[in-house]
Amino acid sequence: MKFEKSERQRSTKAKFVYSNMRITFVLMLACFAAWGVAANMTDPLVKVFSKIFTMSTFQAALVQSCYYGAYFCLALPAAFISKRYSYKVGVLTGLGLATIGAFAFYPASLMMTYGFFLAALFILAAGLSILETSANPFVMSMGPEKSATRRLNLAQAFNPLGTNLGVLLAATLILPNLNPATAAQRAAMSPDALSAVRAAELKAVMTPYVGMAFALLIIWVAIALIKVPRSNEPKVQDAPNTNFRSTLRRLLANRHYSWGVVAQFFNVAAQTCVWTFTIQYVQEAIGGSEANAGQYLQYSLLVFLASRFVMTWVMGFVRPTILLTALAFLGNILCVYAILSPDISGVWAVVSISACLSLMFPTIYGVALYGLGEDTKFGAAGLVMAILGGAVMPLVQGALMDAFGAAFSYITPAICFLIVAGYGLFNLRTVRAVRM
């Protein structure tokens, strides 16, 4: 009788743990969607702020430098949080800080200064950096290691749901509310008239971010209330392995990981460059307003969304690194075509690039982290720090755009794709413990 009772208790406990894990996974999907909203609602801000504050494309691109620079700065502290406590604590810390940053857009809209918006954006992105550093390996730990890359691709497939919503919010709440006055017309306005125009435009920028803050707060409460088992998280085995220097040496010695960080840098750079300057490319190629050009950015994100699910399915039959290599080369070809044909066909080439981007981030992430064991949490931080590519390369592309035009500037993501393809070839030519 005691044995049967013990078995029933273990069975009940296992069902409870499994149920909680499923609920936690669903909440993680909401987190993946949430940072997609933030990232792609931010992309049009380069165009928006260049118009509101009458600045060059290079100056406005500081939006992306601020956003992705925060990812670089906070990824390592996030790893220490996860290492010392748990993935759940890291997720909650990130969500909390991101909520504060999103709410900060309200006072920024009242101050009406570019610097205040950059500060609010930095706080938001800092929180999302901690969230992403914790959430990606958390999802990978929710099952067998051999299927971790595919499981992460499934979770990342919900990120485009957020990215599409982010672009939709920008296209419906921000871009249509921009005053059509040109830079010359704004310069001719009286200070009071110009201030009134800017106040209306910045209020439109603020509204979706404050709405997102409430959504992040709801997710925070839901995750805080659920009990999450830690059994699958990597554990420290002995004291020497907790030394950060020794961990760093092991990570740098692992070529699949260290070159994975480089590939992730240029993957995020390509993604950010393509989406940030889609509106400018469309306007240069076929004309039209910001709102009309923004529709093509929406099409890009829809392609990204559909491709993420399709590639997750295809990955069940084709080795992920083969797909990564092939799509990186295709992305390069599409960029070159967009440079040579700045017309409607070039516009659709830019839109199609999103299909190539769809599987890159989670695939590089999963391949690079495979087999790291107790170094996984710091390894994850390095891969998130590689998002710095999204801060650096848009400045390069922005400078090229100011000097040579939108079409030629797409040489920047073209080069980035070649480097990602190189990482894919490197993995195909080397032997791994499993066929990743």
UniProtKB/TrEMBL annotation:
Gene3D superfamilies per record: MFS general substrate transporter like domains
Keywords of this entry: Cell membrane, Membrane, Transmembrane, Transmembrane helix
Protein name, as recorded: L-fucose:H+ symporter permease
GO molecular function terms attached to this record: fucose:proton symporter activity
Transmembrane segments: 21-38, 58-80, 87-106, 112-131, 152-175, 206-226, 257-277, 297-315, 322-340, 346-371, 378-397, 403-426
Alphabetical list of Pfam families matching this protein: MFS_1
Lineage of source species: Bacteria, Bacillati, Cyanobacteriota, Cyanophyceae, Pleurocapsales
Any one of the GO CC terms: plasma membrane
InterPro entries xref list: Lfuc_symporter_FucP (IPR005275), MFS (IPR011701), MFS_trans_sf (IPR036259), MFS_TsgA-like (IPR050375)
